[in-house]
Design brief:
The chain is mainly β and 256 residues long. The chain is built from four helices and twelve strands, in the order ββαββααβββββββαβ. The strands form two sheets. Strands 1, 2, 3, 4, 5, 6, 10, 11 and 12 form a nine-stranded mixed beta sheet that branches. The protein is elongated and about 75 Å long.
């Protein structure tokens, strides 16, 4: 492998329409060349024979990290803050929005070492590429209210994680861009915290994250036992999705 190379371009705007109100806008583009990515699980009769030839007949599939992608990520961050007097204290209202999209500029699907073992294999399957493009939320919205008095303080924060798509092991799942995939809807999370100032240096706080116990959609249950064993639920941050498991041994190698 070789180091990734990135180019960052950004443009920002700050505006204060009123003494207690501020607005910032930041647009950015991040281009990454030679992005380090885990390959798909590589498995074929030729791979099995090669592994057996080097004394690793216990391994049936191989994956490794390599410089497989060039990507571009475009995004926009918008932040609004407003402060006012309320109930003998200060109330800060804020909102933050992120919009982003990642595109694949170049995909390297083979290497000399892999072609020598099995030229029919590709390093990244359609399912893997679908996950890279779609399995992270393209939007995130945070709404917050922070009231601070002489002794007491209260914080409330609501976060909306945008919808996403991820490939599915269920062969009866609908086709999206030629891949069996599942759509996961947007989800809200609410955090609350109460504070009491014991002194200038010490504050007692009690609160909870995701107090309404909201969770994302579950991974659709496949109809066959093999694919059902591979199904995993997504994480509450919506950034995780299904991941395969297998009774067969596998190995992760690094390409030099």
């Amino acid at each position: 492998m070789k180091p990734e190379k990135s180019t960052n371009l950004s443009l920002g705007l700050a505006w204060k329409p009123a003494p207690a109100t501020s607005v910032t806008l930041d647009a950015y583009r991040i281009r990454i060349k030679d992005r380090i990515t885990r390959s798909s699980d590589l498995q074929s009769e030729a791979v099995t024979a090669y592994l057996a030839g080097i004394g690793r007949s216990d391994i049936q599939s191989v994956a490794y990290l390599a410089n497989l992608l060039d990507t571009s990520s475009d995004g926009l961050d918008a932040v609004l803050n407003h402060e006012l007097n309320l109930a003998g204290g200060k109330l800060n209202l804020n909102a933050a929005l992120n919009l982003n999209k990642t595109t694949l500029d170049k995909v390297r699907q083979s290497s000399a070492a892999l072609a020598a073992i099995d030229p029919s294999l590709t390093l990244l399957t359609d399912s893997s590429l679908f996950r890279i493009r779609n399995a992270s939320p393209s939007s995130k919205l945070i709404l917050g209210a922070d009231w601070q008095g002489a002794r007491w303080g209260v914080l409330a924060r609501a976060t909306r994680f945008g919808a996403l798509k991820d490939f599915s092991y269920d062969q009866e799942a609908p086709l999206i861009d030629g891949v069996h995939a599942q759509r996961f809807g947007a989800v809200w999370s609410l955090d609350l915290e109460a504070q009491y100032k014991l002194s200038k240096q010490l504050t007692l706080a009690l609160g909870g994250n995701n107090v309404l116990d909201q969770y994302p959609d579950r991974c659709a249950r496949p109809t066959t036992p093999v694919t059902a064993a591979r199904c995993r639920t997504t994480s509450s941050t919506r950034s995780a999705s299904t991941a395969p498991t297998s009774t067969a041994s596998s190995a992760i190698l690094f390409e030099h």
